[in-house]
Amino acid sequence: MAHLLLLLPSMSYRGEAFLGAANKVGVTLTVAGDAPPDFLEQSPDRFLTLDLYTPSTAIPTVMEFAKSSPIDVVLGVNDQTAVLASTISEALGLAANSIDSVRAASNKLTMRNLLQKAGLPCPGFIMVGIDEKPEDVVQRVTFPCVLKPLTLSGSCGVIRADDQASFKNAFIRISHLLQTFERPEQEVAGRQMLIEDFIPGIEVALEGLLTKNTFHPLALFDKPDPLDGPYFEETIYVTPSRLPNDTQARITESLAKAARAIGLREGPVHGELRINDQDIWVIEVAARSIGGKCSRMLEFGTGKSLEELILLHALGRDLPSLELVTGAGGVMMIPIPQEGILERVEGQEEAQRVPGVEELVMTAKPGDQLIPLPEGKRYLGFIMARGAQAEEVEATLRESHRRLTVVMKPQTSSAGGQRIFRV
Description:
This protein has helices at 15-25, 55-68, 79-92, 99-106, 108-117, 134-137, 164-180, 183-189, 245-262, 306-314, 348-352, 390-402, and strands spanning 2-7, 27-33, 47-49, 73-76, 125-129, 145-149, 159-161, 192-197, 202-211, 214-222, 236-239, 267-275, 280-286, 328-334, 340-346, 357-362, 369-370, 381-387, 405-409, 419-422. It is an alpha+beta fold and 423 residues long. A four-stranded parallel sheet has the order 3-2-1-4. A four-stranded antiparallel sheet has the order 5-8-6-7, with helices on both faces. Strands 10-9-12-13 form a four-stranded antiparallel sheet. α2 (55-68) packs across α3 (79-92), α3 (79-92) packs antiparallel against α4 (99-106) and α4 (99-106) crosses α5.
């Protein structure tokens, strides 16, 4: 039986989906990371302790492990572990995207340079260090602009600025954020940020799979909530897209060109794109599958999940139908309304009973310290729904979300007592 090594950060939501896929495909799974996930409590022998932020120690650890447990596939679930997966694969002599291409996808500056070199639509941009003075840097930008760390994902640290005052505030906040990470993560995040022109328009997410350098679109998600800033918290994803067919075809072509420009040749690709009257703009390209629990709403023609397709491709097996099942599906990533300590979330049963809701998962637990964007890096939970049409699914998600009430306790007593948020 083939052996999969899954690189899984402790805060990732993706482990269970890959575990289920491994069981269905017939693959032995070993999870590697800093702490065993809850779903492996009954199988501690399937976990490998690994420093995901330090390749110099991670690679020898995996090489030694592989002597007694040969590895056939190495996968990462986020940008950082995708780079490490490519590096480990090369060390083991396994087929994978080049390390340079995966690193380019995980670094916003490298990605921008490659897209620009390939002649693809690209916002104006500059790179600056967090030690520079914002009053000096601001002379080099055009408003509105977006400031973002080079390597973080999930809109963490991404802020729009419309004038000099908001620019200075954003610059200081991002600089502070990058310095507050623990040392390994801080080294990955770096001490630089990208400043680029704000691109107005609607935003979509496209999930695809590269096979022998051919891009296959799997699912195009509409994002019906405007993402205009000052922060870019993503909430609702719904598929299939309601955009015209010709626009959808252009989106697919744009992401395929972007993946080629970066050098990706095989495996999952996740793209974030903006569409306006001027053009289609590739905002992000990632050498991984979609994050969070969004993939739960994807089922393909033969009943396969996204993770099953990824594993089948990685193992070199024949791929079944890549067509989505009929109907519509969507997910809401429940935002965190306020910084503080979570006491409880009321109304969960009522939210679950909304017709069309398939699942409501609260990933934040009572007692957790929660921080909203742009400093935060997680969600309160997820709502998954299905329906006949995309409009129906969107309405279901909003109604289910409306029935939730978040009760939080401020972190300091001086901030007052309990706070209740109807979200």
